[in-house]
Amino acid sequence: MLKALLATDGRLPAFVLRLFLAVVLFPHGAQKVLGWLGGPGLPAAINMMTTKMHIPLPFAILAIAAEFLGPIGLFFGFLTRVAAFGIAVEMVVAILLVHLKFGFFMNWFGQKAGEGFEYHLLMIGMCIALMISGGGVCSIDRAITRDRR
Question: pTM of the full predicted structure?
Fold first, then answer.
């Protein structure tokens, strides 16, 4: 089962998808966990999610882990499908709990009270593609499962 979960071919598109997804999402996780880039850091992020957003603590921790550890896994192509699944679930929850009420479009002109969900849909689409294909070329997943004959 583990081999099937890690299986991937040496194709380039999965590599490109996982790198771009990792590079775009990692700063969001780093804000929450490390306090980088003007972020609150882990205690404040957990407090915000549990008190202001009313997310139960275990789910807040899972969301933060998906946003911080998921991009690291994707960058190296390690447990690509697991990382992509975690990120996709987090994006679906973010749409349902936060962004759906603001409509489809991002708040490009500062005229809405919040951000729409178009960014999240792109993330979900990228995650689905990675769940189907695996990590592709230059991934730890491929190095682990490649036939050595």
Answer: 0.90
